[in-house]
From TrEMBL:
PANTHER family: HTH-TYPE TRANSCRIPTIONAL REGULATOR XRE, TRACRIPTIONAL REGULATORY PROTEIN-RELATED-RELATED. The lineage of its organism: Bacteria, Bacillati, Bacillota, Bacilli, Bacillales. This is Helix-turn-helix domain-containing protein. Residues 5-59 form the HTH cro/C1-type domain. InterPro entries: Cro/C1-type_HTH, Lambda_DNA-bd_dom_sf. It comes from the Bacteria. Keywords: DNA-binding. Coiled coil: none annotated. Gene3D superfamilies: lambda repressor-like DNA-binding domains (1.10.260.40).
Length: 72
């Protein structure tokens, strides 16, 4: 999971600091998320999925489908 979050950030050429600002946390906390040192809170996981236009299942390695689910 953590590698996917890092890869998605790097694909957009964003720094950890920029992602931390979007998530309203410190760069250190965000770095901990990417390294897997702390569990990512559900609200943050949802924000990451929305930001990267993917599903939480993709971030959690439950699917390899990057495309988000349709909201119905």
């Amino acid at each position: 999971m953590y590698q996917r979050i890092r890869d998605l950030r790097e694909d957009k050429d964003l720094t950890q600091t920029q992602m931390a600002e979007y998530l309203q946390c410190s760069q250190r906390i965000y770095s901990n998320y990417e390294r897997g040192d702390v569990d990512i809170p559900t609200a943050i996981l949802i924000k990451l999925a929305d930001f990267h236009m993917t599903s939480t299942d993709y971030l959690l390695n439950r699917t390899n489908q990057k495309k988000p689910y349709s909201k119905s």
